[in-house]
Amino acid sequence: MSSDRQLVGLTTQPAERHKHIRARGYIGSSALGISDGLITNLAFLSGFAGYVSDIQLIRFAGIASMLAGAISMSFAGFLAQRSEYDLYHADAKREAGEIEQEPEEEKSELKKFYLAKGLSQDEAGKIVEKISENKDKFLEDILMHELHVHETRLENPIKMGGVIGLSYLAGALIPLAPFILLSTRNSSIIGAALVSPLFLFGVGVWKGRIVGRRFWRSGLETLIIGVAASGVLYIIGTAIGFF
Fold this sequence. Notes:
- This protein has one domain.
- Helices cover about 85% and strands about 0% of the residues.
- It has 10 helices and no strands.
- Helix 1 (about 1-10) crosses helix 6 (about 120-130), helix 3 (about 25-50) packs parallel to helix 8 (about 155-180) and helix 9 (about 185-210) runs antiparallel to helix 10.
């Protein structure tokens, strides 16, 4: 009796997904949006400020760049997640058709998965027969074990687009803030040069903790990329300004 309960547990456990794990997709996208917005707008402002001396024009260009990037990232996040939905349903439709047309072959494929997990022929056979009694569960297991996809892993496209767009907006605002709050170009460049590296390192640390990397390595990586990109574009902008 206990053995049967263990077998049933094996079939239902993978579908379980806690809310705090589900939020990880949004957290990861948020970290991506913030770092992308910060680095992109920092690099843009550095290059533009190296070419243009008018602080009002720099502010306007920085705000335009921030808004354009945020809108673009929002739509990109929405379309990417929408594509995941479409791909999932296309896979589900194809596998459902195969279950109807070749049920024994699909059972055999699923049985091989449980055998590879260390179950005996008898145990794997019992699990597959139990699952195949419910077509929805049968399809769910096939998709999960054969294609490694599950409907609960899909995030809401609208929410995902909103999270990425707002995160990009927040990141892009960091290097822009000194240009808005300070009155001269030079003081704004110095302010952005002082504030942005701190946030770059902080965002890198956050990303590192999310993905399980060493926080200092991830922080330094993000910092170096941001500083290098802004430095190169500032030099290019300054050089163009001489012509």
